[in-house]
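Interim report, section 4.2 (structural modelling).
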Amino acid sequence: MGKFLLLAFRNVFRNRRRTIMTLIMVGGGVTGLLLVGGFFARMFWGLRESTINDGLGHIQIFTAEHFNREEKHVLDTGIDNWRQVAASVSTGGHVRGIAPRIEFNGMLSNGVKSSVFMGSAVDPVAEQSLGFTPHLDAGRDLDSKSGGEIEALIGAGVARSMSVKPGDGLTLLAVTSDGALNGIDVQVVGIVNTGFKEMDDRYLRITLPSAQRLLQSNRVTNLVVGLDNTDNTDLVAAQMLPQLNGQPQHLVLKKWIELATYYKQVRSLFSTIFVFLGIIVFFMVLMSSVNTLLMAMFERTREIGTMLAMGTPRSWIMALFVIEATLLGLLGAVVGVAGGNLLGVLINHAGIHLPAPPGTTVPMTFRVMHVPSLMIGSSILVIVSLALASILPAIRASRLQIAEALAHV
Amino acid sequence: MPELVSVEAVTRNFPLDHSFVSALSNASLHVAPGEFLAIAGPSGSGKSTLLNLIGCIDQPTSGRILIEGVDTSKLSPSRLTALRRVKIGFVFQTFNLIPVFTAAENVEFPLLVQGVSAAERRTRVAAALESVGLTARASHRPDLLSGGERQRVAVARAIVHRPALVLADEPTANLDTKNATQLIDLMHDLNRRLGLTFIFSTHDARLLEHTDRIVRLTDGQVVSDSLTSVGSSANKSYDSSAFTQAPKEGLSHGQVLTLSL
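Predicted structure of the assembly:
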């Protein structure tokens, strides 16, 4: 068997020019997949982390009612004893912090013009400790210790629409928990750019006490849990469940992946594109390799005839061609993995910028991630492709008529 | 003595357009073990066709061929493969060595196919290469060997698995006179010392002087089958001067050939 493998290995390098061309083709396919897949993986990772760090957090705690019914009154499905809940779940490992939130909406006005807002109320200290810092175009973040005016952050679109800048005042109107209309004056301290125009046109953020005063409720909508590492999400979620079950309210937790709808849509779209690319590379390698391997078979017709004349089983001839093609695929994969990683390093080092993706306003950097599973998958893809490509030449070789093959010129 | 090869009224036709051409017509031949037989005739006379049929790499249109009494036409393809693997050794006009293998690896190949153990293969390959005077060239690839050396490797490959029959199709056609004479003497020597049966085709009149028996073919028909003066002589005498000119690793004058196959 060793000699047989040796024969296959030497045959691979028999026509060096053709082997090099095949290796370039196969390696190019693997390199292409690694670069595209690595870019997608980096994009997924970046989107995941930015989604989490932009305020989604790793885990969010809600009341079960929040998902079961619409609110009859503001915050009537909110968490009542949220401080106690936060204290109980923050004792586990890997938890960096817990940030309470109130999600609400209402109207804002500059005295001349009114607009709808989608507001969130936060504890600035808790948010900042978790790294949930908004992207400010102007001004500063909320200050929980501010004793004067009620502070507010607004989206760039809101600022443009209301013609306000940091230091200017706005009036917020919202329905309270008992159904009354309430209003507060706020001072704009910062202009936020979320990267999404639709969000920027509705964005408003105030402090938690300000919102509780506006909405006349001590409840919060949810608690956002930040972890030390995204990979610990499942572990911490499992640890938290028993603690939530011991609370007076029926509480549920949602992992970030359950809440990151946009992330899932992007991932699904680009994963489909990547699979499509993989199929193209698979057939590209398959079709071109069939031709190359057939040429190799024709060139060795007399040699195959000689081997058959000496009593070599036809199955051995077939196996020889499949092994040669598999070895070629393996070498091509090595070339491709090396090339893909090298190019990836060069691209990352070059710092190439891409235009902002649709729906966002922030340009992105072309960065490639080195993903071991992608390297293994791409390698298997081309190895299988070449092994399949060898079947036709292998069958033809094994079925040669010996006398005709020996007379082949 | 039982016959090793029996060719009985064999005809081989090849299709040509809507007709056929007859390469061999009603040919009969019987070969005993240990014979050194030449099939002679001009190009197109059917020599290679006859050898292919005896070698079980082609099937007759009619008639039958028996190897050691076994009718080859009744064997399945896999059993024919097994028969070739064990009973027959081939030497080709164009040497047909595997170019990516060394001389030793080429000689080893038939043993590999037979599933002989590695230790046994090493012993037999060394002996076969020694018998053809190429021990020192064992690690050379075919492209680094001369034409004569390549053909001697091919002979070593043909005999290494101790076949009952060695078939050589125009083995000297690509060799100069000196190498051709060396080769034919080598084959004859192996025939005498090991009792190997050799059947080879040639149209080179010089080589026929060294053979015991000549079967002549013309237009696919056996026109004569005769013993030569070499074959009919009780005390066979061969011109071994060619070996005295062989390279150092080859056979020297008066050297006793030993082959423990």
